[in-house]
Amino acid sequence: MHDLAERFAADGYRFPLAVLSPAEAAAAAEQYPLFQARAREVFGSEQRFKAHLLVGWLDALVHDPRVLDPVSRILGPDLLLWSSDFFVKPPRDPGYVSFHQDTTYAGLEPFDGIVNAWIALTPSRKANGCLKVVAGSHRFGQLPHTNTHAAGNMLFYGQEAALEIDPAKVVDMELDPGEMSLHHMAIVHGSQANTSDTPRMGVVLRFIRPSVRQTKGPDSATLVRGTDRFGHFEHEPRPDHDWSPAAIAAFRAAIDRPSALG
Ligand code: NI
């Protein structure tokens, strides 16, 4: 139990952790294109953030004890979900992610109160652009970033951390469908393009302790375990059923806040 938290604190990441069966991961992967088809109908565009506010299958995943138990070993018994984020690379997609820290724009403090959980719905391998981290780089503090706006960079600003990367420290977090990796909010990370014929489909869940503060202004989160004794975040409602008017209204309100910036 303690080992997971200690090694996460030392290295800034842990993997692989088995959370879903291969059949459950395949069922979720089948839901993804259906979700986006409906999103195009309802909103006129695909949606990447906070889909757990709209559909029961993702709401169930973000409350699943198999996901929450390892996160609680690091963050404790009270958990808010700050954001969920689909991260999909189609076959032969040139999109890549430059090395960066998610702390740069998120506005959340302190960094140690946040754990990112990346769940693979399809195989996530070096060849299809799995997440890679720079071991121990979460201990460097906030690094300066340059907004490169480079072609093919999937990040909004094409931001890149000012860090000379030691190739020996780069860890490819390869996962089978249904496996999860955990990474620290301040760890330097990125991913290559998908050069294979296999889609890379994952969802990243960003969990915070209720004591974490948002420095960018009012924000919301979903209470997924325990109690919130701080009240720093407005609590989001769970969907009563898929795509209900109430769920769509709650989703629209939530994605106007900083937590939908990823
Ligand atoms: Ni990132």
In short:
The protein has 262 residues and is of the alpha+beta class.
Q: What does this entry look like structurally?
A:
It is built from 6 helices and 15 strands. It has one domain (4-260): q2cbj1_9rhob like domain (Jelly Rolls, Sandwich), CATH 2.60.120.620. Helix 1 packs across helix 4 (65-75). The chain has helices at residues 2-11, 22-43, 56-62, 65-75, 103-106, 245-254; strands at residues 13-18, 79-89, 97-100, 108-109, 114-120, 132-134, 145-147, 159-161, 170-172, 179-184, 189-191, 200-208, 213-214, 220-225, 234-235. The longest helix is centred in the N-terminal third of the chain and has 22 residues, at 22-43. With 262 residues, it is an alpha+beta fold. The mean pLDDT is 95. The chain is 24% helix and 27% strand. It has a 7-stranded mixed beta sheet with strand order 1-10-5-12-2-14-15. The chain is globular, with a radius of gyration of 17 Å.
Distance between the first and last residues' Cα: 29 Å
In CATH, what is the class?
A: Mainly Beta
Strand and helix order: HEHHHEEHEEEEEEEEEEEEH
Radius of gyration from the alpha-carbon trace, in angstroms: 17 Å
Would you identify the CATH architecture?
Sandwich
Strand order of the largest sheet: 1-10-5-12-2-14-15
Helix content: 10-25%
Q: Count helical runs.
A: 6
Overall pLDDT confidence: 95
Q: What is the CATH third-level topology name?
A: Jelly Rolls
What structural category do the secondary elements indicate? Answer: alpha+beta
CATH superfamily: q2cbj1_9rhob like domain
Bound molecules: nickel (II) ion
Tell me the domain tally.
Answer: 1
- Taken as a percent bin, the fraction of beta residues is 25-35%
Number of strands: 15
Low-confidence stretches: none
Question: What does the largest sheet look like?
Answer: 7 strands, mixed
Overall 3D form: globular
